[in-house]
Amino acid sequence: MKIKRFLSLVLSLLLVLSLSGCGNREEPEDPNSVPEVSGEDELVLYHNSTALAPMLMSLTEEYSKATGKKISAKLAGNDFLGEMQSNSAVIYVVDTNSDLSEWHSGGLFSDLLNDSGLSSVVSGIPAGLQLNPAGIGSYGVPLVLEGYGYIFDKEMISALFGKENSENLINDLKTCSFTEFEGFVAAVDTYISAPSAAEITIGGSKYTFAKEKNGKALNLTGVFSLSSESTRAMEHLLSTALAAKFASRYEVMTAAEEAVSGMNDILSAYVEVLDLHTSHISGAEGSIGRGDEFTGGDYNYSTAVDLFTRGNALFYPGETFDTADFEKSAEGFSENLDIIPMKLPLSDDEITAAGMTAEKLQSSIVIGSRYYLTVNPKADETSSAAAKDFINWIYSNEAGKNAFSSAFGGVPFNFEYIMGDSVTEENSAAENQSEVSSESESSEGKTKSGTASPENSSQSGTESENPGLAEEESSGEENPDLVGPMIPSHSISNSLMASVAEYYAAGNWIPDLSFALPADFTEKILGENLSDYWGMETWADSDRKNFVDTIIGGWKERLDKENSAVG
């Protein structure tokens, strides 16, 4: 019964791209020549995202140039499903934020893991990124990865603590405990209202605030930029909480009522962090808390973005997908961003997920993919083969990897660092031409030693047994076979995505588990109840308990409904 429920739930998590026609699949005789595109053979990649449109157009154009096979990306209308079915679409991009149950019931999902045409690509998808509702198979290929956590401007940290200290402080914030982070938030909040050369300790190191506000810190009014209307930041934090109990999406989806009831301590920690967020909100004129000023003010998504890009807030709890909106608010703003994990006040005794520890939880960002590529299982053999050729080209062919980097500038699921040749003038020049920011190849040796292939990461983002070489072990004398620069498999467009790539390659990530919760959980349980709590200036212990009971009760109620429907 559970299996059926989840096949219907998650199998409805993949769709997108369509193909019509197809023909000659032979490569041009001269691999260095630019082949002419045949007008007879056309692969249509269907999607419904205006944000993805220019990237997919760039990707398809490069594929046509490289292979001579005509391909186009088409933005579908409002009836995406109807258009897929009426056009007998073959390959499509599915948005996992959509309700995909109809896609599944329409038989538009194919198990790509057991498909010989794509098995070499799909087998490399980490378990935490696979779309496998029944615990087996894989029904889509992640298009581009997104990171979720506290996004911040590195220049703001430099203004607060001095440029010479910022890199070390950022590294310590990435791995510090919740207690240290909570103290950091309180110290920044105090500094905003009364600047002084106060000292704080993070990760065992002492850092001193600038005596007076300067640079970007001049506009600082609060710690967190939040929207009173959105639950997205709360949903990302919930993924971190779920990772303390469940090791995979499948475990969340098949959770029994007993497991949900056992979330009390973890969800209490979750609510404690929500309290921290909403007690230190950045306002237009100064720091605010919950209450009428927050709920009655114009604190929507656009306002939260603007407050962050104007330098009014230190942290933006959100996702890398929001970068496009940062740029709309302030051109060039996204060039110097970074991200640290969301923290929870949990000890090892309270964490029961397989392979998870408190240290791992506090030092890992959430990584997921909103968009997946999938192939229609009803497609004819020729069209299906053409679609798989395209997917294989993106992730396995060097020209395809370059085209992906050029189009998205983000992190693919098969991103990794590989050992280059011995350092020479040619290698140094090539390395300098890389678009990956220096942050992704330094940071106390974390990236250079973080050579764990993403294919070897566990479903919960656990580091591989051999996360890489320690910095002191990378010398030619001690390891003569491992000399040379660490070369990224893909070029990354900005410092924020470079940071996500670093977390990912090192295995310091956890999957987007909130995605596996019942369909209307976020909207009905978090959304409708959070608005009430945002209006309460203070939360008593009884309020926190009621909040936790509401989350658990709502989850169990949905389990009962789903079990009744299946049974």
Question: Overview of this structure, please?
Answer:
The model is unreliable at 1-39 and 422-480 (pLDDT under 50). Strands 5, 8, 11, 12, 13 and 17 form a six-stranded mixed beta sheet that branches. A five-stranded mixed beta sheet has the order 2-1-3-14-4. A two-stranded antiparallel sheet has the order 6-7. It has 23 helices and 17 strands. It is α/β, with parallel strands linked by helices and 567 residues long. It has two domains: 11-142 and 370-408, D-Maltodextrin-Binding Protein, domain 2; 147-367 and 493-567, Periplasmic binding protein-like II (D-Maltodextrin-Binding Protein, domain 2). Helix 6 crosses helix 7 (163-175) and helix 17 (381-396) crosses helix 18 (398-408). The radius of gyration is 24 Å and the shape is globular.
Alpha plus pi helix count: 23
The tally of beta strands, per DSSP, is 17
Percentage of residues in helical conformation: 40-55%
CATH-wise, what's the superfamily of the largest domain? Answer: Periplasmic binding protein-like II
* Class from secondary-structure proportions: alpha/beta
CATH architecture of the largest domain: 3-Layer(aba) Sandwich
Regions with little confidence, pLDDT below 50 for 5+ residues = 1-39, 422-480
Question: Strands, helices and their partners?
Answer:
Layout: H1 2-10, E1 42-47, H2 53-67, E2 70-75, H3 80-86, E3 91-95, H4 101-105, H5 119-122, E4 141-142, E5 146-153, H6 154-161, H7 163-175, H8 178-193, E6 199-202, E7 205-208, E8 222-224, H9 232-242, H10 249-253, H11 257-261, H12 264-278, E9 281-282, E10 287-288, H13 292-295, H14 301-309, E11 313-319, H15 323-329, E12 337-340, H16 358-362, E13 365-368, E14 371-375, H17 381-396, H18 398-408, E15 417-419, H19 425-433, H20 446-449, E16 486-488, H21 495-506, E17 509-511, H22 521-534, H23 541-566
Parallel strand pairs: 1-2, 1-3, 8-11, 13-17
Antiparallel strand pairs: 3-14, 4-14, 5-11, 5-12, 5-13, 6-7, 9-10, 15-16
Helix pairs in contact: 2-18, 6-7, 9-12, 12-23, 17-18, 22-23
